[in-house]
Design brief:
By secondary structure, the chain is α+β, with helices and mostly antiparallel strands. It has three domains: about 5-260, Alpha-Beta Barrel (TIM Barrel); about 280-395, Beta-Lactamase (2-Layer Sandwich), CATH 3.30.450.20; about 420-535, PAS domain (Beta-Lactamase). Helix content is about 40%, strand content about 25%. The strands form four sheets. It has an eight-stranded mixed β-barrel, surrounded by four helices. Strands 19-18-22-21-20-23 form a six-stranded antiparallel sheet. It is elongated and about 130 Å long. The site of one calcium ion has 4 residues, from strand 6.
């Protein structure tokens, strides 16, 4: 304070000389990254001393009686600066405790704002807790006057004063500013984190907008957003700037809002679309729980059921009430040995998924196969507080798979008995499937028939005519009908085969694949060679 040799006349002269200027610090919507407004902060530049911080001159202005003069000067400049900007950004102003004894303050503010063409419903009036220590009745009248002109009321530096909760009730506040001393160390200190979370929760339950001060890192912003804090202010979003830096500050915020769109996860906890207040999130979560097509449960660190949905209760063959508050061991002792290792892994922070287990016969629905996943759930301090369990019953799927396998087996056995040899080729003639009997007929092994491999088994003279005939069918979509020769080995005679197939068309009219079959046909009387080609075409 020794820096400032202050007395009233000195200060008045400094104000008249324009030594005081407003600086503006961005207030940002934490969820969208968009600019919400600016807080007006006083700066004093003394030609012989340089910049003097407000923490030094504000106490003097209060004690020497020139704080009202200073506030009017700053407000005038601040309102004109913001009125010149596009949009309707908010302007947050600081009012000293002593000023809350001055009943004409709201009128003075209104006059200044009107003169600057700045609407008072864009004003936020920040009051510190200490302002409320005495003369609460006067403060209440002033607060009401501000509210009646559409201004919002913010309780500044919340958490640093005394009997804060009492003050919260004494005036009709709209906003709660969490002091930067908590925000600054919230990512390192668990206690600070808990306090911030509690203040944000308190603000929300009272219907107040919560503003976090002193946000310096993206990590803090992300954590605050996750807690449901609406607004943020701090060096991360911008330092206080003079009026001629406002446009640049606005542009920087707009750019940051598009570049750093809030991510949707924090510490492994997915927010997804669960935006909004904790109460809303809770209701949404419960709806998700109840409507989920899988069994869901939340187990705490002692493996007690803290929540579960009806589907899981049904799966376990016990009412929900028999689960809640009880441990897995108490509810299903026979199953504990199988599931405990996975729960323990999740409790130590590991997400475990895709666990397939068969329920022991002794428990209800025993013998059924289930698929489990375990997801650690963390609190705002990042500590694992429990495990979210999801269980789907695989029995119907397993049964359906078995039934399908059985049907396929029947079908295959039947096909193998038919004299014809079925095949499937794609739209370009690559073989996708052939009967086992193709292998017997051609003496080939394994998957050699796949793709265009099947053509290798044809009589060399028949390959080109067969290929040409098939391509004519590919081009028109007309059925395939070709004859070619095959033999099992060099020592065996050639056999004549007729291959016929039909196209399967997609919705767009294009061929998806061809289904067909081959059968042995008798030798023609005339010749032994040159038989390949499209049968119908040849007959024409
Ligand atoms: P405040 O109202 O809590 O203002 C926020 C203070 O935090 C400002 O300090 C600001 O520069 C600083 N700050 C903002 N973001 C960060 C950050 O990310 N990290 C850190 N470490 N600090 C940050 P400033 O401007 O020095 O103001 C100090 C206090 O002086 C203000 O605290 C306010 O109580 C008072 N003050 C400033 N201007 C006025 C005024 O016009 N009238 C009255 N009555 N008081 C004022
Ligand atoms: Ca303030
Ligand atoms: Ca503050």
């Amino acid at each position: 304070m020794d820096l400032v040799e202050s007395n009233y006349t000195d200060a008045v002269r400094a104000i008249e000389n324009g030594e005081f200027t407003p600086h503006f610090q961005p207030l940002v919507d934490l969820r969208t990254g968009g600019l919400y407004g600016f807080e007006l902060l006083a700066r004093w530049y003394r030609p012989e001393q340089g910049w003097i911080p407000p923490d030094e001159f504000i106490p003097l202005a209060e004690s020497d009686g020139w704080i009202d003069l200073l506030t009017r000067e700053l407000l005038r400049k601040g309102c004109s600066a913001l009125a010149a900007l596009p949009g309707s950004l908010a302007l947050s102003i600081n009012i000293s405790p002593v000023q809350l004894r001055n009943l004409s303050l709201p009128d003075e503010v209104q006059t200044i704002a009107a003169a600057a063409g700045f609407s008072t419903d864009r004003l936020i009036v920040e009051i510190t807790e200490s302002a409320l220590a005495d003369k609460v009745e006067t403060a209440r009248i002033i607060a009401r006057a501000f509210k009646s002109m559409g201004a919002r009321l913010a309780l500044d530096d919340f958490g640093t004063g005394y009997s804060s909760l009492l003050h919260l009730q004494s005036l009709p506040f709209d906003e709660l500013k969490v002091d930067r001393s908590f925000v600054g160390c919230m990512t390192e200190q668990r206690d600070s984190r808990k306090i911030v979370a509690a203040v944000v929760g308190l603000g929300q339950s009272l219907g107040l907008t919560t503003v976090a001060e002193g946000v310096e890192t993206a990590e803090q912003a992300e954590m605050l957003r996750w807690m449901g804090c609406e607004l943020g202010q701090g060096w991360l979003f911008g330092k206080p700037v003079p009026a001629d830096g406002l446009t640049e500050a606005m542009e920087k915020c707009a750019q940051a809002a598009t570049e750093h769109l809030p991510s949707s996860t924090m510490g492994g906890v997915s927010m997804g679309s669960l935006e909004g207040l904790p109460a809303q999130r809770l209701a949404q979560l419960q709806a998700v729980y109840d409507g989920a097509p899988v069994g869901l449960a939340f187990l705490d660190r002692e493996m007690r059921y803290r929540n579960l949905n009806r589907r899981l209760a049904n799966m376990n063959g016990r009412p929900m009430s028999e689960h809640l508050g009880r441990t897995v061991q108490e509810v299903m002792p026979e199953f504990l040995a199988q599931v405990e290792p996975f729960i323990r892994r999740a409790l130590s922070g590991e997400a475990v998924s895709g666990v397939e287990l068969t329920r022991p016969p002794a428990i209800p629905n025993g013998g059924t196969t289930i698929l489990l996943s375990y997801e650690p759930a963390r609190d705002e301090a990042g500590e694992v507080v429990g495990v979210s369990v999801a269980i789907s019953d695989l029995t119907p799927i397993k049964q359906a798979q078995a039934a399908q396998r059985e049907t396929e087996e029947h079908f295959r056995s039947m096909l193998e008995l038919l004299p014809q040899i079925p095949w499937i080729i794609d739209a370009e003639g690559r073989a996708l499937d052939v009967s086992q009997r193709w292998l017997e007929l051609t003496g080939t092994e394994d998957d050699g028939w796949r793709g265009y491999g099947w053509m290798e088994s044809l009589h060399p003279e028949d390959r080109q005519p067969t290929w040409d005939a098939m391509h004519r069918a590919f081009a028109t979509g007309e059925p395939i009908d070709v004859i070619y020769r095959l033999r099992k080995s060099e020592n065996e005679p050639w056999k004549r085969l007729r291959s016929r197939g039909r196209a399967r068309f997609g919705e767009d009219g294009k061929v998806i694949c061809w289904y067909g079959s081959i059968e042995e046909v008798a030798e023609p009387d005339c010749s032994q060679s040159g038989t390949a080609g499209m049968v119908r075409k040849r007959a024409d």
